[in-house]
C-alpha cells in the first residue's frame, strides 16, 4: 500500500507535466499554423490587387490606343506584361509589380502628350480607379508584411522556435519596395 501511494505521488505530477507539455506543444503548433494561414491569405490579397491592377492597365491601354497611333510599341510592350501564375514566389510577384509600375509610368508619359485624352471622362474614371487599385495594393502589402513579421517572430522566439524547428517552419520573405523607390527624391529643378 505504501508503495502504491509513493508511486502515485511521483506518477501524478509527472503525468501532469507531460499533459501540460503536450497541451503547450499543440497550442504552439496551432498558433504557428494560424500565422502561416494568415500569411497565405495576405499573399492572396496581393495577388488580387496585382490582377486588378493588371486588368486596369490593359483597359487604360485600350482607351489610349484610340488616341495614340504612333506610340504603339510602348503600348504593346505594356500589354505584353504577364501576371505571375498561381504559386508564384513573393520575388516573382515583386518583379511583376515592378514591371507594372514601369508600365504605369510609361502610360503617364504618353497621356501627358495628349490633352484630349487627359480630359476624357472615361479615362479620368480609369485614372481614379488606378489610384484606388494602388492604395489597395499598398494596403495588401502592409497586411502581408505585418503577418509575415508576426509569423517570423513566432518561429524565431524561444520556446516556440523549438516547435517551429521540429515542424520545419521556415522564415518568409517580406514584400519589399523597388530599389529606385528607396532612394532620396531629387527636388532640384
What's a quick, concise take on this entry?
The protein is mainly α and about 190 residues long. The protein has helices spanning about 1-65, 70-80, 90-110, 115-120, 120-155, 160-165.
Secondary structure elements and their pairing?
Elements: H1 2-65, H2 72-79, H3 90-112, H4 115-119, H5 121-156, H6 160-166
Helix pairs in contact: 1-2, 1-3, 1-5, 2-3
* Number of H/I helices: 6
Could you give a short account of the major beta sheet?
A: none
Tally of strands: 0
Order of helices and strands: HHHHHH
Q: What's the pLDDT, averaged over the residues?
A: 78
What fraction of the residues are assigned to beta strands by DSSP? under 5%
Category from helices, strands and their pairing: mainly alpha
Gyration radius over CA: 26 Å
Distance between the termini: 95 Å
Query: Please, what is the oligomeric state?
Result: single chain
Low-pLDDT sequence parts: 181-189
The global form is rod-shaped
Work out the helicity level.
over 70%
Notable characteristics:
disordered C terminus, 76% helix, rod-shaped, 189 residues
Q: How would you describe this protein?
A:
The chain is mainly alpha-helical. Helix content is 76%, strand content 0%. The chain is built from six helices and no strands. Helix 1 packs parallel to helix 3 (90-112) and helix 1 packs antiparallel against helix 5 (121-156). The protein is rod-shaped, with a radius of gyration of 26 Å. The chain starts with a helix and ends in a 23-residue tail after the last helix.
